[in-house]
Amino acid sequence: MLERIEELRNEARTAIDAAPDAAALEDIRVRYLGRKAELTAILRGIGELPPEQRGPVGKTGNQARVELEGLLGAAKEKLEAAELNARISGESIDVTLPGTPPVRLGHLHPLTRTRREIEDVFVGLGYKVMEGPEVEHDYYNFTALNHPPGHPARMLQDTFYVDPASLGADPELYGTDGAALELPPGPRDVLLRTHTSPMQVRSMEDATPPIFIIVPGRTYRRDSDATHTPMFNQIEGLAVGEDITLADLKGTLLTFARAIFGPDRELRLRPHYFPFTEPSVEVDVSCFRCSGTGVMTVGGSEERCNLCKGTGWLEILGSGMVDPNVFGFVREHGYDPERVQGFAFGMGIERIAMLKHGVPDLRMFFDDDVRMLEQF
Ligand code: PHE
Predict the structure, then answer these.
(1) Cβ proximity of 316 and 268 under 8 Å
(2) Which residues face 288 on adjacent strands?
(3) Which of 192, 193, 195, 238 to mutate to test the pocket of ligand 1 (most atoms within 8 A of CB)?
């Protein structure tokens, strides 16, 4: 019995010495000191031994157990410390090594940024941002904006008409779900909207006055040169109440112009014509490059400012007081032309971005050449 205890003790010592990690040590502990271990059984059975063997077996067995427990504990500490050290050195960062080159990040398109800047100004003034359909009925694009069929101003913005057959079975009468369509009055034509102004009428059909909205969105015209593309972006504005005047229009647009082009800007309103505003104005902002003087001092000599072409003014948008005839189309929605009045304006986002950043050709915004886009 004593010999067997010695054998077990030696076996266990060798195993402890060879254990590669803490998990292996735990296995050894279970095997030699656990509840079902041989040594444990020997110590538990001492009472059944002949009396003269009890003393020596108990003593040797207990010594073996205490020694193995000690060895296990020490080995465990050593292995755990080694494991921790290995992990720490594996995770350490050498701050003297060169860094990973930064990932090249993209950014929003300049037109998106310009649109958001303009939206921010008007949201700050209490306006709501709305969107509307790009494929529009003749009624909203023209008729209800005081261009009756045959009105010559329709020609100013002739556009892309949609072939009704491409819209479905019988688009004049049925929607895609087969239900009868309630079509607006007037010509049945469907077209790509030529401006965001149709949303003036649609928004007034949906909400009673007072109303303060802006409408960003894509618009389409049969136009193509350095300052026009067949698709471009506009922001429409509409403010209607009982006592909104031309002075409010000017103050609002001055706030806008100063937020976008700088705090020292001034505005100029020039008489103009739009069928859906009366009076109508075109709005110029004082040139931010030459501070409205029209001249630039370059290297001691005076030159004509090439941004405003020497005029001191930059045209930025069209606007006016909403024509009472337009209210006539939404009278039953709470817009009695005798009671309400207001203003509307519309601007091209590309135009604002071109002026602001000195982009010479509008088409550059749509070429998607990163060498151009990276400059913003
Ligand atoms: N819709 C006009 C255009 O596209 C701009 C405009 C909007 C003018 C609102 C007056 C009022 O040219």
Answers:
(1) no
(2) none
(3) 195
